[in-house]
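Entry 14. Structure prediction run on the chain below.
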Amino acid sequence: MAKTKLLIVEDEALVAEDLKMALTNIGYEVVGHAVSADDAVKKAVELEPDLILMDIVLKGQKSGIDASYDIKADKDIPILFLTAYTDITLIKKAKNTEPYAYLVKPFHERQLLAAIEMALYKSQMEQKLKASEAKYRGFFKTSRDPVFVTFKEGRLIDFNDVMPEFFGYQTREELLKIRIPEHYENPDDWEKFTRTIEQHGFVKEFPVNLRNKDGSIINTLITSVLIKDNDGARIGYQGTIRDITERKRAEDQIKASLKEKEVMLREIHHRVKNNLQVISSILNMQARAIKDENMRVILLESKNRINSMALIHSQLYESENLSEINMKRFVDKLLLRSLHSYPVPDTKITPIVHGDECPLLISIAVPVGLVVNELLTNAFKHAFANRKEGKIEVSLSASEKGVVSLTVSDDGVGLPEGFDINATKTLGLHMVKILVEDQLDGKLTVIQDMGTTFKVEFAVARE
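Output returned:
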């Protein structure tokens, strides 16, 4: 087996010689020795060692860190820093070159051996990872989205030509110096991303706000998979970044527009309710001024019909959903209003409401509300003559197939003998028949048994 080739970059001759002897005794082959940054770059290109042991402080204006940048720009050779300096600033500067190890002098041979072997292992893992991605090269070149391959800590290994422009960099070399997490607007998102992909082996359309080089925010969706080496070890991530900034901006504009329309609709319902209330008040005032009892009753009934419609708009104004109304709550309120509008002297009436929440569109809720109002009015006016107590029940339900069932029943005296809903001449019941059969396209059934029951069935369109 060929020996591992090492290049020593050290400006102290005795230190370099001692290091060479130690490495040779361990079993490595020292192929060269450089004393300056320029000399190190030259020999790295010529000798192509498997690993470079680099002193940071060298003779001349350039340091080992500068040499490391120059070597990485031309050759993919792992570098292990050796230095007597422990200055934090220097360490951070060296760290930016992403060395494979960092040893502080003096050190023992066992420490040196461990550092070299770990650096070589890490380099081999990088090479395997790059080799495993060769089959995706065509996708790299043709994708309009940024495509990346990173180590688990987020350091970039490879990426397509879209990537530098996406982040606002001029060259690939600039981008190679950064880690993807550094461009996350929220650092917690990187932790969440890695936790998810480590748990499931992939993430699909993971929403992340990334920061461009100039600081501007890019709304993105990241789709990525976990990369493993031949032994099954998890070594990195590969994926794509989809820029959805324009889509997000459009969605925000739509949401803002919908919000404006919601405010407008709420105001419309409020104004309609107020206008109906004005009409109701005018009819009420007119009724007070009329001495003819029959005319006064007609005006009050018209007022109550208007109030039933106003109640719908009032409930819509107070609701979060401006297109649907909860009919059970509507019936509860309408029944109480009717009880107040049509008091039956010396009779205790018990109102009961059964049923589902049953949301209905306003186009259906208005005629249904008018039907309920007319049937309640009819019951309060006629069902309990000469009775000490009575009961009015309203039941409302909707089947899974979208059929709404509405019943209004009382335990009163019942309808006149020979009553026929198709031949009725009373305005209220005639309106009920027209609204149910013509507007709701439903079925109206009248049942006379221990009182009176009006049953209405109609279908509503399902989403």
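Residues 164 and 174 are 8 Å apart (CA to CA).
Filed with the rest of this week's runs.
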